[in-house]
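Known limitations

Files may contain more than one protein. Parsers should not assume a single record per file. Below, a two-record file is shown to illustrate correct handling: read the sequence, read the C-alpha cell line, then continue until end of file.
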Amino acid sequence: MIFRPYYYFETGCAAYVFGCGTLGKCAVVDPHETDIEAYIAFAATKRMVITHVIDTHVHADHRSAGPDLAKRTSAHYCLHESAQVQFSFEPLQDRQLIDLGNTRIQVLHTPGHTRESVCLLVTDFKRGNDPWFLLTGDTLFVGSVGRPDLPGHARENASQLYESIHQKLFSLPDEIEIYPGHFSGSSCGAGLSGKPSSTIGYERRWNPALGLSRERFVEQVSNVPPEPAGMEQILAFNSGRDESGGFRP
C-alpha cells in the first residue's frame, strides 16, 4: 500500500492519499482546495490513478477540493448519502465497500459531528485480510472527539456521537490505527493532541471523553470552543452555494 498524509499545521487539519501501488488505484480523503496539484502530482509519481475523492463530511473549517479534484481526475466524488449539498456526488452507504485494487475501504456511517459523517476502515490485502487502519474524520481525534454543535442541536448530536464511537468504532480491535481529520490547532474539537495518529485501544483507555457515561459525555462535549473563522462562508462553498444561497457556478 501507498499511504501519504498531508498535515496542515497552521490549522490542525489532515488529508490523506492512499491506495494500491501494484494496480495503480488510489483515493484522496478530505482534500484541501490549496493542494489539488500536490495530490495529483504525488499520485502520478507513484503511478496511481485517483479513482475516488472522499470527504468524510461537509467541512466547516476549510474549503474542500473534493468536487474540483474529482472533476480534474475523472474520479468519483463521494459523500455519505445523507449529505445536503447542491451538486451531484456518489452517495455512500453504511458498510459499503470501495475497491482500490489490493486495498479496500469499508464505509462506516458515524453521525454526531455532522449527520453525514463517516469513518473509513482500510484493509491492505498484501499485508493481511484484517483491517489495518481507520480514517476517523471529525468523529474521533487523538485525545478528544469531534464537536457536535456545528449543524445545530448540539446535545442531540453529542448523543449520536457517543453512540457512533461506542457502538461502531469500539467494536473494532484495539490494534486498529486511527488517522483523524484534525490534530492540535483545529477548532473542530477541544483538547486535541498534537500527535496526529493513535490506535483504537489507546483511545479506548486514555481518551478522557470516552470513559464518561452518555449523560456526562453529552454535557462535556456540548461545551464547545468558538466556531471556526469564516464558518458560514466555508460551509456555503463546500455545500455548493454562493453567499446569496443560490448555486455556485
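...continuing to the second record:
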Amino acid sequence: MDYEELRPLVLQALKLKQVTYITAVIDQTETIAREKGFYKDVRPYMHSPGGIKHYMPKEDREKVRQIIWDLILQRVLTPGVNELTPDLPHIRVTDYGKECLKSMEMLPHDPDGYLEYLRKEIPQIDDTIMTYVTESLQTFLTANLLASTVMLGGASEKAVLLLIEAYINAISNVNGKRQFELSIQRFGILRKFKEFRKRLDSIRKSIPRSISDDLDIQLDGIFNLIRNCRNDVGHPTGRKIDRRLAFSNLQLFIPYCKRIYGLIEYFNQTSI
C-alpha cells in the first residue's frame, strides 16, 4: 500500500489505541486494512517469535512506523506513557492529538483524505482554491504554520471573489450590474465583501434557508477569522499562529467553502 493509503488507517488505529506500543499500532493498522479488503492474496508469515501470523508486508509495516514518527513530529503523538515510562516503543496520543482524532473526516493530518472530502462535498470547486488548500495542508504538516495560514487565506479570498462574480452575473439589470461592478473594482477583498453583504441582506428572504441561515457565523465569521489570521502573519509583524488555531481554520474551511458554493449555485440559477 502507498504511504498516503496507510496514513488514514493509522489514524483510525490510534483512535482505538491512544496509549500503546508502536507494534500494537502497526498490528491494529493491519487489522483495519484487512477489514477494508487489503492483503487478501498475501501469504501469511511469522513476523515475531510469539507465533502470530501477519499479512501486512514488512515494507508496509515500515511505512506505518514512519507515519507514526511523522505524527510524533506533528505533536499528535508523544513517545512514552508518562514520566516513569517516557521512551519508545511506548507512544501516547497527546491532548492536541485527541482533539485532532475527533474529526476524522476532515482531519488536516490526513491531507489526502481532507482533499478527497473537500472534492466530494464541492465537486465543482475551483482549481485555484484546491491549489492553495493543498499548499496550506502541506505546510501545516511540516509545522510551517505562517505559510499554511497565508495559503488558506488565499483559498478563502478566491472563493469569495468567485461568489461576488456569481452575484454580479445574476444581476438582471444591465446598468445596475455595471454600476455595482465599477463601484467595487478598486476595493480590497474586505471592502468588496462588505459591499456584497449589504446587497445579499437585501435579497436574503428570497434565498433558500438551507444556504441563507446563520450567514453571520457560517460566512462572515469564518471569512473574518481566516482573513484576520492571514493578515496577522502575512506581514512582518512577528506574530505567530498557534497550531490549534491553524488546525481549526482548516477544519472550518470545508463547511465555509461549501456554504459559499451553495450561494454561487443559487446565483448561477437565479436572476436578481
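Parsers that stop after the first record will miss the second one. For reference, the second record is described as follows. The chain has a mean pLDDT of 92.
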